[in-house]
Predict the 3D structure of the following.
Amino acid sequence: MISPRRIAAVLKKELLQLRRDRMTFAMVIMIPLIQLLLFGYAINTNLRHVPVAVVDQSGTELSRTLAQIVQATQVVTITEQLTTPQEAERAITESRVRAALIIPPDVSQRLARSPSVGLGLPNATNQTSSRPVAHWIVDGSDTMVASAIKSMRTMPLTELLKQPPNRQVPTFEVTLYFNPEQRSAVNIVPGLVGVILTMTMILFTSAAIVRERERGNMEMLINTPIRSIELMIGKIIPYIFLGLIQVAIILGLGHVLFDVPINGGLGTLLVVTLLFIVASLSLGLVISTLAQNQLQSMQMTIFVLLPSILMSGFMFPFDGMPPPVQMIAQVLPATHFMDMIRGVVLRDASLYELRWGILWMIGFAIFGLLAATLRFKKRLG
Amino acid sequence: MNDVVVSTKGLTRQFGENIAVNNLDLEIQTGQIYGFLGPNGCGKTTTMRMLTGLLTPSSGAISVLGRSMPEAAEPLKNEIGYMTQIFSYYRDLTVLENLRFAAEIYGIPVKTAKDRIDELLHTYDLTTNINQLSGSMSGGQRQKLALAATVMHRPKLLFLDEPTSAVDPETRRTFWEQLFDLVDQGATMIVSTHFMDEAERCHRLAILQHGVKKADGSPRQLMDDLQADVVEVEGPDLRKVKHALDGKPKILSTAQVGSRLRVLVDKSEPQPVDMLRGQLAAFPGLSLTPQRPNLEDVFVSATRGPEQ
């Protein structure tokens, strides 16, 4: 027999405490607000303006034009002019630049034979007859920088010879759904909902039981007729509302500031988010029954938070991870949520299309709540 | 009227190697204030926690209000009140909010809860602090609030773990008056303390040391049964006198109280004053007077046994 009155008592008490804890309440609002602004602008997977150096060993009008064409792609920004490849290497080591374009003295001969200018010469089959026009040396440690430079490997140089550029016929036609302009914010903002909810929801509840223990309230509580499940439910309900406020802030501001569409139904969105909030809260409760003090609960929260950011598909595509890691990542509610929230917000997915994620989330929440309830003993030993 | 409310047989609790409570037999009757007197770490709190079902005994049997513990711990929560040593209600809630919380947790019907809270606010003199955060109140006021919340559901059996250790003597006096009022209304109480004046107010006492019950009885009875005579020594050089007596046969203990030295002499000595005078022949100008034993003497003689 669960007593709604006792649940209400705990709930009311939590709200009163929350109301007096102005800082926590302010953070509930400020965390999503500031992080949305920061990440919405900051995270950009389309790499632009990589600082590079140019080593122009040719010193001709041709080489200068070549450098200008490279700069005009906006992939790189030429920040230094150097004279030797050795200087370029040093500049990369000192991380003044990420890459250097070395234009050899014989650039005009090389250009004449290059297929990229499309003079209609027969395709060369050996290196002596056709060599690259110039040479990039790149700090390849960051794969995103490396691939941005590599994307220029076969760039057409038709402009150099004032030829019409539309000579290339693509092998495939590609149509980009859901984010045709390829704006990172469209992917980042819904994902941010998952990251921020993971952080705040787990953090709030993971401290919940521990705090009562640290302040000595637990000794009083275990001497009352309250049942563990009543305590657990009473403790998570207030935070469900806080979670929903955060979601509204992120998606609302994301829509206004970053023009992130909300294509799905609000009902579907509510169901998916509620489930994720409850799953995160119940995970927090489990942590709370494991941790002995607030520092431990904080450490455990971060232990969950980092994979929820790095492995959930928020930052790096889930499909790129090796299968064993994918299995681990799928334990986390955040992984399912990333897919679901993007599904609802961007792809207008229905509850039925998201059924597996939903089922997992329900299972996770029930399991967490039960585990926390069973772990929380009204006994000391 | 003299029903047994709490009884234990061979109650023992071990924490690893350490025996916190050792083979404890208790019998506590209705309408009594029963005191556990002993130094810190003597097993008072452990015993209370076993009696309330928070700790499972390593061995032994407990019966509380006719039911066996810890099995009946949950159903008995509605009949038991436990006031913890440290204030354990919410410091960031006001007096009224804390009392409301207690009323709701104990399932006091909504209709009667308001009256009950008003009654408690008046009884425990908290009417002027209704909207004060309990964390900002004085120790004495907080203690009153804790008692008010603990008796919210009119428990038949009340456990008070060192209830007045952080309270001034005046507040302690009124606090005890309130305890006697509760007893008058039919409650039974178990109080742990290390204060003699507090112990002296109990109907019955158990003196605990290292988890063993060293003495059990009413304070008067314990003082009458003391196996020692008390002699007070007055005069110069009391510190040297004390060192001269310490460890001598039949001298149970010496303790300086202001300008007097209180000496406990074993009952087997027929002439304690003469014996002491003989021992202290080297110190001129001392006056020796026999005294009535007090509870501290009882406590000292009960707990001076071999360390376990």
